Amino acid sequence: MNARLPIIRAQGEGDKRSFLGGGLHTWKLTTEDTAGAFFMFEDVMGQGKCTPLHRHPEADETVYILEGEILVNVDGHESRVGAGGMTFTPKGVPHAFLVVSDRARVLTLQTPGIGQAFYRGASEPATDDASETVDIARIQASAKENPRGIELLGPPPFETVKPG
User: Fold this and answer.
1) Comparing C-alpha atoms, which of 43, 71, 69 is closest to residue 157?
2) Are 40 and 29 a contacting pair, CB within 8 Å?
3) How far is residue 155's CA from residue 158's CA, in Å, rounded to a whole number?
4) CA distance 28 to 3
5) Which of 45, 58, 107, 137 has the most CB atoms around it within 10 Å of its CB?
6) How far apart are the C-alpha atoms of 114 and 147, rounded to whole Å?
C-alpha cells in the first residue's frame, strides 16, 4: 500500500488475537496500516506470564505499561516497571519480562515492523473461550520462520521461573 490513510481506533477496537505465549493482543496498528514503518498492539496478561530471553535483530521495541507491573531484564539488568513507565530496547539487545502484578496491560511498539509476522504466526484469532495455554512449540516454530523479527536465546532469566 503506497498511500497511508488516517486511522482512529477507540478503546477495545482492533484485531483481537490470543497470543500462544500467553496474553490477549489487540492490534491497534499493523505494518499494512503503516507501510511497514511499525506495528502496535495492546497486550493484556495475567500474573506469571513471562517471555523467554530473546532479542529482535532488526527492530527497536518500546513497551509502555498502561496498568499493572512487570519485571524486565534488559541485557542482564533487572528493573520493575509500573503503570506510566516504559521500556525501550534497541535492536539486538537481549531482554525478557515477567508480569508480577495480578494483571498487566501494556502497549508494544516495534520499529520497523519486521517482527509482525512472528506475533501473527504465534497467535490465533481470539474467541470468547480462549485459553491461557502456552504453546512453546508454536512460539519456537514462528520464531524459526521469522528470524529477522525475533531470535529466542534461552529460558526466562528470572530466578522465580527458572526450572528446579
Assistant:
1) 71
2) yes
3) 9
4) 18
5) 45
6) 10
Beta strand 39-46 with 69-74 is: unpaired
Q: What are the E-state strand segments in 68-150? A: 69-74, 77-82, 86-89, 95-99, 103-111, 123-125
**pLDDT band for position 127 (cuts 50, 70, 90):** confident
Helix (H, G, I), strand (E, B) or coil at 54: strand
pLDDT band at 164 (very low <50, low <70, confident <90, very high): very low
Q: Which domains does the chain have, with CATH numbers?
A: 15-158 (2.60.120.10)
In terms of C-beta density within 10 A (0-12 exposed, 13-18 middle, 19 or more buried), how is residue 163 classed? exposed
Cell triple for 55: 532479542
Task: Specify whether the CB–CB gap between 132 and 22 falls below 8 A.
Answer: yes
Residue 132 in this model has a pLDDT that exceeds 90: no
